[in-house]
Amino acid sequence: MKISMKVKLILSYVMISSFIVLSLLITSNFMLERQFQKYVTQSQENLNLEIVNQISKEFAQKGAADEEFLAVLGQNSLDRGIVLMVNDTKGEELFCMSCLNSMECDNMISAMEQTMVERYPNWSGEYTEKTYQITNGEVTYGTAVLGYYGPFYYNTQDLEFIDMLNHMFFIVAAIFLLIAAFLGYVMAKRISKPLENVIQQTSEIGRGKYHERIKCDSDILELNDLVGSVNNLANNLEIQQKIKKRMAGDFAHEFRTPLTSLRINMEGMIDGVLETENSRLEGCLDEINRLTRMVSDIDKLVEIESENLILNMESFSLNSLVENIIKTFEGETKRKNISFEFNEEPQEIIADKDKMSQVFVNLISNAVKYTDSGTIKISFSKKENILEIKISDTGIGISRKDLPDIFEYLYRSDESRNRNTGGSGIGLSIVKSIITAHAGKIDVQSEPGKGTEFTIELNL
């Protein structure tokens, strides 16, 4: 049977408190009873000495103790649980209470034993006698033998006192258990309430509702962290949902235009409205190639952002990689009167060579594409264990409002949103995904009319 955490916490508090209270109860009761036994034993000894002192004073005053005095003292002693016997210095018996009233003495000892056995079934007490010297200074008058039930005995008042203490212990234990149950309920409620909110929120997330956030101001660090994590999860999922919706709209928009153009041209040629010319067919082929490039870019982006992406890390010369890529753009750069500045010292890095090649191809391609004439500069610099790569151009630049979004899927700034460039709007998304997969960072700074500079940081 499954039990809620609130009930478990309350039961845990009660069980722990019960264990602690019971342990304290047993320990304190044991220690208290030990001390009380010592007290009773000492009280018995004090009573014995008191009786012996009375006999000593009687001998000191009169030189002897008459029978009437000893009879009265013997009866008083018997009433207090002591059987008195007095002998002279020769050991001759002067007084014996058990001889005068043996039945009462036996009944008293038997009653004491029965009382102790009823309270403590394993009691092993017995009748005990203790001998004291009757003296006054250096004069010895004889001995007093005091018989009593030992090693100690609880009278009615003693037992009532012990019972009262035990009742008090049980009352205190019950009070503490109630307090523990109440505190357990309060703590369980404080802990379970945020958890219930988390459960409710995660259920809402499971149904695709990401806008709600959990409000929690607990003094429990782990609960705050849990609530914060769930809120972050909801926030990220909400952002991802918006991105997916926007991506679906952007993809539909990007594919709709070339498909519409193809459909119009194909229908026109089939219906005979448009002539089947090489130029028109070449235009259709261009649109098909453009769609093919977009699909290829999307495939690359999906591959790079996949959790199963495997980087084939190897050591290679970054200079040779960049130089080879620059050569592939020589025709276009000569046509547009663009020059390259790249003359860096040899730099070896460990990375995925093919994917890093794609990064430089995309960035240099953009620089060439949006620069009519000017300079493209590529430079390396080391800062401790970081390699900083800068690719800058003197092209048309990017407006400040567009900078935060240029790495998003299918995003293109207004100035560069020209279909004649053949851009799909996915290239920079691929660049960022590759750099992120290498645990690196990429940043961009730009100013319209003055150019753009991309900065990449990679761990060496």
Descriptive report:
The structure is a single chain. With 460 residues, the protein is an alpha+beta fold. Among the domains are: 5-174, Beta-Lactamase (2-Layer Sandwich), CATH 3.30.450; 311-459, Histidine kinase-like ATPase, C-terminal domain (Heat Shock Protein 90, 2-Layer Sandwich), CATH 3.30.565.10. It has 11 helices and 11 strands. The strands form 3 sheets. A 5-stranded mixed β-sheet has the order 6-8-9-11-10. Strands 2-1-4-3 form a 4-stranded antiparallel β-sheet. β10 and β11 (451-459) form a beta hairpin. α6 (221-271) runs antiparallel to α7 (278-305), α7 runs parallel beside α11 and α10 (353-369) runs antiparallel to α11 (427-437). The chain is rod-shaped and about 155 Å long. The protein starts with a helix and ends with a strand. Residues 414-422 have low confidence and may be disordered.
List the helices and strands and how they pair.
Elements: H1 5-62, H2 67-79, E1 83-88, E2 93-96, H3 97-100, H4 102-119, E3 126-136, E4 139-150, H5 156-206, H6 221-271, H7 278-305, E5 313-317, H8 318-328, H9 330-335, E6 338-341, E7 348-352, H10 353-369, E8 374-383, E9 386-393, H11 427-437, E10 441-447, E11 451-459
Parallel strand pairs: 6-8
Antiparallel strand pairs: 1-2, 1-4, 3-4, 5-7, 8-9, 9-11, 10-11
